[in-house]
Q: What sequence folds into this?
């Protein structure tokens, strides 16, 4: 708790409790009211995303998308907000470790806004070379005034200025403790680092961690049911999208867009789907043929399912199976947008093997089994902080079934 003559802000259960000595009474404000406050800058939007994630335990990609939809930010502002939100989540343990060195109390004792303002400021200082340190400090102090009080702003100013002066942290000695070194230098949980070093060795683990911390390319899949690759490239370039061909998938394209993909005419016409290159390759390995009957178990949200329909030229039958009826709605929406007419959704527990006899025999079965997700940390950096080592045994049991 910070006590000053002007204001106190303390987290209380599902609320921020704000008390002002200059106004009569107390203001009890639900956290969601904080998030409704319009973001005035990319940094503030990133802050709101981080606060939302910490208080509501969401996913960074979905939370960021939801907050961006409430703004009219374009181009540079959208890109900066995204880089800041993803960057802080990617480097979370490193930032918290470094901040603890400058504080005389545990970071967890600070309020949610202050904690994340500090993370944002420190991320810019340590990992964004193009942003002057002075700008990172000044903008963070402005946020501290907006979400706190004069005492909080002083704390933020002091911590970030000291960090700027001291520069790069002194990392743990690699030879003495290679696990701690990799965990903090490359921002991964130590339990993951230990597993990978045992399996792959130090050098390969270092390269893997470094790769996970790099921004991923955004890839899309051309919907050959509606358009050719060349036609789509032309349409996308007309909308201001930068396009490159995938090295691995003939129907894949790598893109950079100044506007949200969902705003593109080509997206709304169902001319492409957003999908990772590795996911495209996995679907193609099945080698399903037009006219066959295929079961796609654990199908939601439908990226691979619709790709199968595309590869089968919309001929045959695909049973899109998933345990969650709600998530199967995403498959239906994707199939409708992309024009995939051979997909039937079935709510079913795939560990119940009577599915085959209850519905129909299948020529092929595609199973993207529930997994840790550690292979896609580069795209979903929050996964590495969500998962625990004990989760792997549970998931392995489900996979076996």
A:
């Amino acid at each position: 708790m910070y006590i000053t003559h002007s204001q106190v802000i303390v987290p209380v259960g599902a609320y921020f409790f704000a008390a002002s000595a200059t106004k009569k009474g107390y203001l009890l404000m639900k956290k969601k009211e904080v998030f409704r406050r319009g973001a005035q800058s990319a940094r503030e939007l990133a802050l709101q995303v981080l606060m939302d994630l910490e208080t509501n335990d969401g996913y960074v990609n979905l939370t960021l998308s939801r907050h961006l939809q409430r703004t009219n930010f374009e181009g540079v502002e959208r890109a900066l907000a995204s880089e800041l939100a993803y960057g802080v989540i990617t480097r979370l343990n490193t930032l918290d470790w470094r901040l603890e060195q400058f504080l005389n109390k545990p970071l967890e004792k600070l309020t949610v806004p202050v904690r994340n303002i500090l993370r944002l400021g420190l991320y810019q200082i340590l990992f964004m070379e193009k942003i002057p340190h002075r700008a990172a400090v000044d903008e963070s102090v402005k946020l501290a005034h907006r979400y706190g009080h004069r005492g909080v702003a002083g704390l933020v100013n002091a911590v970030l200025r000291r960090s700027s002066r001291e520069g790069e942290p002194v990392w743990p000695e690699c030879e003495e403790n290679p696990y701690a070194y990799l965990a903090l230098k490359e921002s991964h949980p130590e339990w993951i680092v230990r597993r990978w070093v045992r399996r792959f060795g130090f050098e390969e683990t270092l390269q893997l961690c470094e790769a996970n911390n790099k921004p991923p390319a955004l890839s899309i899949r051309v919907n050959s049911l509606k358009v050719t690759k060349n036609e789509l490239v032309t349409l996308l370039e007309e909308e201001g999208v930068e396009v490159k061909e995938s090295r691995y998938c003939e129907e894949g394209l790598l893109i950079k867009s100044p506007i949200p993909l969902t705003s593109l005419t080509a997206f709304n016409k169902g001319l492409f789907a957003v999908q990772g290159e590795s996911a495209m390759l996995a679907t193609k390995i099945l080698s399903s043929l037009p006219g066959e009957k295929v079961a796609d178990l654990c199908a939601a949200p439908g990226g691979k399912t619709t790709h199968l329909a595309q590869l089968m030229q919309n001929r045959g039958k695909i049973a899109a199976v998933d345990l969650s009826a709600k998530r199967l709605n995403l498959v239906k929406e994707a199939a409708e947008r992309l024009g995939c007419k051979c997909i039937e959704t079935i709510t079913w527990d795939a560990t119940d093997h009577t599915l085959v006899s209850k519905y129909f025999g299948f020529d092929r079965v595609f199973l993207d089994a529930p997994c840790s997700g550690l292979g896609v940390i580069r795209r979903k950096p929050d996964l590495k902080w969500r998962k625990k080592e004990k989760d792997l045994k549970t998931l392995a049991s489900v996979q076996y079934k």
In short: The mean pLDDT is 88. The CA atoms of residues 261 and 267 lie 7 Å apart.
